[in-house]
Amino acid sequence: MNPQHDVELLSRYVDGEVSTAEQKKMERHLAECGICREHLEQLSTLRDGIREAADYELPSTFTSNLLRTIRLRESVLEERAGAERFAWRVVLALSVLVVVVVGYANLSQPEPLVTVDRVLAAEAPDSLTRRVIEPRHEISKDDIVFAAISK
Ligand SMILES: [Zn+2]
Q1: What is the pTM of this model?
Q2: What is the C-alpha separation between 38 and 44, in angstroms, rounded?
Q3: CA of 28 to the centre of ligand 1 (A)
């Protein structure tokens, strides 16, 4: 950097952190240098802005308003998450239902076969004794006639 333009000194000059000798040196330079005068103006504006920001007082309701806004947003996010969880539970429940229905349809057997003997004995199959029993032989017309006669 051009030693004539002492930015570090200019910065301390703006902040009032210079010796009397440094102050005189800077004032002599500023009288001749438009670039540093412009830079001085920018630094002064920046310094004033920072001081104003530091002095700015927040309204007394700021903290409570901020907390309320945060809680409101959190509750909206929680509601969305809850709705999403609910939707996934519905999907899961429907999936389980489909599996159960399909599984039951596949596993459920046709009505247990009833032997000719049981038919002839007029033995009604009940749910407890119901089981699959292969017939000893095909039911023929004679069996039906015999059953009808013996009744
Ligand atoms: Zn200069």
Answers
A1: 0.38
A2: 10
A3: 10
- Give the Å distance between the CA of 144 and the centre of ligand 1: 125
| Closest of 123, 126, 98 to residue 112, by C-alpha | 126
Domain borders along the chain are: 7-55, 59-108, 116-150
**Which class for 62: exposed (0-12), middle (13-18), buried (19 or more C-beta within 10 A)?**
exposed
How far does residue 14's CA lie from ligand 1's centre (Å)? 14
User: Please, what sign has the CA dihedral across residues 123, 127, 133, 134?
Assistant: positive
Q: At 18, phi and psi to the nearest 5?
A: -125, 155
- Dist. CA 15 → ligand 1 center (Å): 17
The tens digit of pLDDT for each residue in 23-51 reads 999 999 999 999 999 999 999 999 988 88
